[in-house]
Amino acid sequence: xxxxxxxxxxxxxxxxxxxxxAHNAAGILAEAGFVPxxxxxxxxxxxxxxxxxxxxxxxxxxxxxxxxxxxxxxxxHTDSPGLRVRPRPVHGSEGIVQLSVEPxxxxxxxxxxxxxxxxxxxxxxxxxxxxxxRATRLFHHRDPVLRVAQLAIHLDRDANDGLKLDRQRHIQPxxxxxxxxxxxxxxxxxxxxxxEPLQVLSWDVQLxxxxxxSRIGRSHELLAAPRLDNLCSCYGALRALVDARRAxxxxxxxxxxxxxxxxxxxxxxxGAWLAQVLERVAGGNGGSxxxxxxxxxxxxxxxxxxxxxxxxxxxxxHEPSHHVAMGGGPVIKHNVNQRYATEAATAAAFRDACxxxxxxxxxxxxxxxxxxxxxxxxxxxxxxxxxxxDVGMAQLSMHSIRELMACSDVEQMCRAFTAWFEND
Length: 424
Hints:
- Helix 2 runs parallel beside helix 4 (228-243), helix 4 packs across helix 9 and helix 7 (344-357) packs across helix 9.
- By secondary structure, this protein is an alpha/beta fold.
- Helices cover 26% and strands 28% of the residues.
- Helix 7 links the parallel strand 16 (331-334) and strand 17 (362-365).
């Protein structure tokens, strides 16, 4: 078995956007023998398969839903907060060419300052040989080409006492010197995906940090990386699905896009896509919709997202009796106001799985005087009427351009998630 930390690092490096993450997840599953299907194809007789749609993916094993048999599922999300390029991005002043960007999700804006940045995304191009005359191509420009320059301390003496950033004016990255030209960005994208500039029709492009993930700490026991929230959980779900195929029971993984902006999209957790795929899988394996609904009533979904470790510099920001440690194992996340979907029965089932795997368990509860974030858990529970819990791995610097977790938690996550699929 390969080192899960090395595998996670490779997955993160290859997945600067949700579209890359879903594409790479598909590659992992195809290599393990899962059958790739297009959304428009029939799912007849495919017991172990997956379907990819944009930045989202659903994979399954054991014909879940057929025959009314309950199954286990893990859900995670492929997107991370960041900066995304606008449709008409190129502008300039003071002899400097910049790109116009828009914040995506709840990013820690200051973490994007004074870093070497690049671009990645998907480009829709005209292609007479493709269906409809259009094709979508992924790209990842790995060299640094952008920088959001911070104002010098000499021009803002109060910056260290409380930095204030205007998201419209202060986070526009520098791209070049000189004057902006018409078609500059389309020409750049065309060179990335090997077409002529006039073939570029549209794009979804975001900024990404070029610094590689690193093992840090006195004994290299920590992992510093971008997009741990939530590519770490995506990797754990995929690895568990592959490793648990021998269990024989039905198993499902769903990797949704758009969690960081509310999950309301065609492939977000609020939408109907997962339910549609499950119905087609059950029907393609001889089951009926009634049997699928019966199966859902006895099934469980583990919503896998990252969790807040107790910050040593800010312990007062955490609930005093629920401290969470990096390296302490998976974290069951509780919230009575349904920001997390955990209930007593689902928490007990996950504890049993962790006991089987020999993995310790922690519990997180948010301070009552601070607003609590959420996950795909409540949305998925509502959309499917499936018993759900929320689980994460402890991290610091959540929603920063570069986040931090314990290396040992990666292996513990994989073991716990595999046991979740294998346990009764």
